Amino acid sequence: MRPLWQTEILEGLERERETGFADSSVFGGFARFALTVLSRHLARSPRDWAGLELLLYRYVAATPGERENLAGQIRDALVAGGGTGSVAPEPLLKPAPTGQSRRTRLPQSAGGRVPEVDEPPESWSVERLKGVGQSRVRLLARMGVETVSDLVWYFPRDYHDRSSFTPLNRLSSGESATLAGTVVRVDERRPRPRLLLFTAEITDSIGSVSAVWFNQPWVARAIRPGMSIVVTGKVEMRYGRLQIANPEWDEIDGEESLHAGRIVPVYRVTQGVSTKWLRGLVAQVLDLWGERLKGALPAETEVRLGLPSLATALREMHFPTDEMSRTQARRRLVIEELFVLQAALAVERDRARPAGGGITHQPNGPLVAGFLEHLPYRLTAAQRRVLDEIFGDMESNTPMNRLLQGDVGSGKTVVAAAALVKTVESGYQGVIMAPTEILAEQHYARLVQQLGEIGVSVGLITGRLVGNERQEVLRRAASGELQVLIGTQALIQKEVTLARAGLVIIDEQHRFGVRQRSRLVGIGKQPDVLVMTATPIPRTMALTVYGDLDLSVIDELPPGRRPVITRWVRGDQREQVYAYVRKRVEAGEQAYVVCPLVEESEKLEVAAATAIAEELAGGYLAGLRLGLLHGRLPASDKERVMDDFRAGELQVLVATSVIEVGVDVPRATTMVIEGAERYGLASLHQLRGRVGRGSQQSYCILISDPQTEEGRKRLEAMVSSTDGFVIAEEDLKLRGPGEFFGTRQHGLPDLRVTNVLTDVEELKIARREAFQLIANDPDLRRPENRGLRNALARLAARRDSLRGN
Q1: How many Å apart are CA 667 and CA 691, to the nearest integer?
Q2: Which residue intervals of 490-538 are DSSP H helices?
Q3: Edge to edge, what strands does the sheet with 699-703 contain?
Q4: Interatomic CA distance for residues 693 and 698, integer angstroms
Q5: N or C end of the chain: smaller count of CB under 10 Å?
Q6: Is the pLDDT of residue 501 over 70?
Q7: pLDDT digits (tens, 9 = 90+) for 601-629
């Protein structure tokens, strides 16, 4: 006698034959029903029925024609007892219906190169769609819509509920309404040149209203007396009667309307593209190709997580049945979007960190203990926790690849110094790369003092180091005599070699390109890598972008640090601001004046800084010792100015944003930022971090007359919080993830549906599923992972184009 679970599947299969193999004979789809039934049996006998499971996965994504053949194979597998090993390899993809299919490659993973794949239908140009000529191709491209995938992932900005009609005798002026009726009269007039008025009188037998269109002759040609139509717009009282100006309209012809009688999507469009036309285009694609669009999530994952299919989710996202359906669809699409990103990061981690083969550092010995004991302060609990994470990585034989986040002043540098001491104690050399000469020289000065006390040799190499002095540093580094080497991009030149590189530290890593970082890591044989940033990134964003790195966060400031008090003043209060600066300086403190940002030209920015310095020296700050620092000064002059400021020889430093990173002068307690609205939130927060380095109360004064709402919100955020992670979240809200992170350098795709601040649970799910899948199938050779393989290929191609590869 056949088991009950087999009978259930066979009965469903018979109903499939009766419905034309539409995968709709059972609520939720036959294949999903069968997979659910099978999963109960697989718990007891997984190997015997693996072939049947694979056939059911294929059935979900197949066309009706393909399903008829698969149905026969499913029946045979049930009769044969599972059909293990009977499923033939599936071709990757059928070629595009016209022209030659393009081929693209995935990034190489640790286990080898992923096979080439043909691009699926979602990569086809929108030009293939009915009604899309060359002019509309160009208009859609302005909106970022070039392919079928771009179109179906171009989601509405809003929805209008037009599921019910307002009776015409209940219309009220000032409200938006959707109404249906019959056109009883039309009128077309030209009251003056270049103005066409077309009016349609509409009635529903109990009331009437006038619909008026301005300069839309195509409407005048389309609407005729006797036509039944539905219109949506704002009702207003004009000339003693109700009318609707320039409403959206649609003919009622007995068929389901896209534009009324339902929840209707509203899109962001460009001139020449109407939301109504775009609505029809999206519907066309979903009707014709919806079931053929391949998602990245395997069918088994969809079923296990209780998610709707990609086709269902896309349709409900554009044309929702109700709010609950749209919410479920959005959740499915968020997980899909994040799943692709996390899978890409998992592949990257798999490639960059093969198991074993790395450097195994020794447990902490007397050198590390001596360094920590000689510190003039106690490490915070957060610093100790992060050090334990880093030391654990370094003692493993898998290369460390860790991101260290910490707000300005949180004490990342001492953590990095302890890691350097550990690598030296294990017989290796350490390297730090900083983005600017000022920061590199500051690291050098601090580490010479800290590490010199315990006998660790430290060297510095920057672009300005030349001649015999440079050659001597290179020789000592190559021989192993120099134990710690600090520098700028000069470190990645071919002539720089190390005898035994054990630890590479990259400070302010977001300022370096991908190639620069990889070349520095190549200075040794799989050294441990620690990248640091003082630019806070919300944890969800960090996991989204830096998912290939382990994450450590110093979320605690050292005791005794006072939050910087921030004030925003208008330009007409400049005199009072500088009177206050003079008062603080005359009391023995120091101050920064940061000049307005001129993004178009560094030359203009330098000119502005010079002019401000001269104006202050001859006016508000006359008699004080002022210095000027900008990016175009020769390196020797920069060093001299900074040395004079640190020593107190200069009381006020007028500077451009060159001081944003790393400058540490504890006696500087006041900062004035001119034209603060020109800076982004992250830059303003970094600049503010240059004061408040000592025990005295410090102040940051923002002088600004913002002309935009976003500029005003940035300044309000700065005044309301000194927490870098709060600032980063506000920055992310204002700018979106692309601008926040800099997609051009990093290749992060636009997140079209995900909110990285709120979709935390979806991120956790996507990350878990993606990393598990890549662990089980690192080269994505299994047929059920074909959709992910194609998605990663498109992502890799996009990153290559952004990076100019």
Answers
A1: 8
A2: 514-521
A3: 565-569, 699-703, 668-674, 590-594, 652-655, 626-629
A4: 9
A5: N
A6: yes
A7: 777 888 888 999 999 999 999 999 999 99
